[in-house]
Design a protein that fits this description.
Blueprint (H helix, E strand, L loop, with lengths): L1 H10 L13 E5 L4 E5 L3 H5 L1 H4 L11 H8 L4 H11 L3 E3 L9 H7 L8 E7 L12 E4 L5 H11 L3 E7 L11 H8 L3 E5 L4 H13 L2 E4 L3 H6 L4 H6 L3 E6 L14 H8 L2 E4 L2 E4 L5 H17 L3 E8 H9 L31 H7 L5
Parallel strand pairs: 5-6, 5-8, 6-7, 8-9, 9-12
Antiparallel strand pairs: 1-2, 2-3, 4-12, 10-11
């Protein structure tokens, strides 16, 4: 349970009612229910005029005007329009039982699972099945993917984290303690994506890895010329952590931990309405589940494309029986483990890693 609250503990975050611990997400009432939306980036705030038909303008504090507009809107209509704009806004499901076009497209009448597996090819000789220290390439940022990579490193894997020179991991701007916790002991590579040479290097590194962890929407890899299915067929396992899965009408919908949890109904309720159940809870839940799937893949004789959708992980968690908690477990204040060292600077190991794989200048 400690893993779920470590970021809050490291950053000194507290509950803030209908707002998230970090403040970028809020649950807001509509005429017929609630929506949850994240506005962590300037480009998200800039989309408000388009969402509200020009009635809400970008501002240093957009929440009051946005909340005032929402009270006269239908939640489903706002959520549908937000998806068209690529804004991370979701309708809170009624009674915790979401039923929508995305779940129907991915699961039909079946009960959603926290993981979806697609078999690849046989593992290459010398891969994880024959190696005491498999190579994990982490392309993910922020929390879910890096947490999975961190846990695999704790299990003995060699982790190489790849960042974009132009868009480094946003977690570097957050708690130093938390970033050190997730990345200490890893090798740090920075590539000038999407330059052609950098994309070629990324493809070579991915093909050489035993396991890749990716936290982007499906089209992001395609834009970089990375054919995930081809890499998996050639023997590398790939964990794809997304908001809503790699298929279905919401496949390209952006998601953060708080709004993905809200879309699953994984929320607490007080006298005023819904409140976040934790700090971006779908992020660490997805990270832990991805690590379990990754460890299993590294021990298997074939490669796998492993889909871990944050909303689906949160949905499974939300449907656990209320009495499933062990009787000797009691709520406690979030705490954080001590990092084992300092994270390496951005790109500190680029030259050595590229040279190792024959990609040097």
């Amino acid at each position: 349970m400690r893993l779920l609250g470590e970021r809050a503990a490291a950053a000194g975050l507290q509950r803030q009612g209908p707002a998230s611990a970090g403040g970028a997400f809020r649950l807001l009432p509509c005429t017929d229910g609630w929506v949850g939306t994240s506005l962590p980036r300037p480009e998200d705030v800039d989309l408000l005029p388009a969402l509200t038909f020009g009635q809400v303008e970008p501002a240093s504090d957009p929440w009051p005007g946005f909340a005032g507009w929402l009270v006269d809107q239908a939640a489903a209509d706002v959520a549908a329009r937000a998806r068209l704009l690529g804004l991370p806004l979701v309708r809170v499901p009624v009674a915790g039982e979401p039923s929508d076009e995305q779940l129907e497209a991915r699961w039909g009448a079946d009960r959603p699972s926290w993981v979806r597996l697609h078999a690849g090819g046989d593992r290459r000789p010398g891969g994880a099945a024959h190696d005491d220290r498999p190579l994990v390439l982490c392309l993910a940022s922020l929390w879910a993917g890096p947490l999975a990579a961190h846990l695999l490193a704790r299990s003995g894997a060699r982790v190489v984290t790849v960042e974009s020179v132009r868009r480094p991991d946003g977690a570097r701007r957050g708690s130093v303690t938390f970033h050190d916790l997730l990345h200490a002991g890893q090798e740090m590579v920075a590539l000038d994506l999407p330059e052609p040479g950098a994309c070629a290097a990324l493809r070579r590194l991915a093909g050489a890895a035993d396991l890749v962890i990716d936290g982007s929407r499906p089209r992001a890899m395609r834009r970089l010329g990375v054919d995930v299915e081809e890499i998996v067929a050639d023997g590398t396992s790939w964990i794809s952590i997304t908001g809503y899965g790699r298929s279905g009408p919401w496949a390209e919908q952006p998601a953060f931990g708080d709004d993905a949890a809200a879309a699953a109904g994984l929320l607490a309720w007080d006298a005023m309405g819904p409140v976040p159940a934790g700090d971006a809870i779908a992020d660490p839940l997805a990270g832990v589940h991805a690590a379990v799937a990754g460890l299993a893949a590294l021990r298997d004789g074939r490669s796998w494309l492993i889909e871990v959708a944050m909303r689906e992980v949160a949905l499974v968690a939300a449907q656990l029986p209320e009495d499933s908690r062990a009787p000797d477990v009691v709520p406690a204040q979030p705490s954080v483990r001590r990092p084992t060292g300092r994270a390496r600077p951005l790109g500190a190991d680029t030259a050595s890693v590229l040279a190792e794989f024959g990609l040097g200048p």
